[in-house]
Amino acid sequence: xxxxQIGIDLGTTNCVLAYRPxxxxxxxxLQIPQRMADGSVRSFPSLPSAIYLIGxxxxxxxxxxxxxxxxxxxxxxxxxxxxxxxxxRSGQLVQSAKSWLSHRLVDRREAVLPWGSDIPNKVSPFxxxxxxxxYLADVWRHxxxxxxxxxxxxxxxxxxSFDEDARALTLAAANxxxxxxxxxxxxxxxxxx
Length: 193
What we know:
- The chain is of the alpha+beta class.
- Helix content is about 25%, strand content about 25%.
- It is built from five helices and eleven strands.
- The strands form three sheets. Strands 1, 2, 3, 6, 10 and 11 form a six-stranded mixed β-sheet that branches. A three-stranded antiparallel β-sheet has the order 8-7-9, with helices on both faces. It has a two-stranded antiparallel ribbon with strand order 4-5.
- α4 (about 165-175) links the parallel β10 (about 155-160) and β11.
- α3 packs across α4 (about 165-175).
- The longest helix is centred in the C-terminal third of the chain and has 19 residues, at about 125-145.
- The protein is globular, with a radius of gyration of 16 Å.
């Protein structure tokens, strides 16, 4: 049985996760712990929609990752730390995954990001979306271990401009990230809620 209603704004620039108890009460924005470039962890009310692809020469050299997230072990740093590291190596920084997911002239499941980079471990717009949603699901699991996200009611916002393919890919990425009890909400409607 759901304990919370959760709203996720999967933004082009930033993501936000808000929640409120099912029995009522005020909605709150979840503070999102993020690994910084220096290895420290700080919490912020939003998560930059940025993914840093860890280079082979950096594996193990960037310090201890977040113990509750496996994404760093898979080669990804997400959020503010990604932006900081991306200033040093821009060819390893993925941004605006949501825009790429709606781009009709690229194969959205093909590993093309970061665009124009020669890094060998690129990701697809679909995978980038999945990584961002997995990170948010990991943060929720860390913050609310007794209320699994797949048991909560989750609303995920999408731009009204998304075509059916982009909607389907977003839903598939959410499901792959463990968000199974969710509904999609177009951004103009989201403002009403």
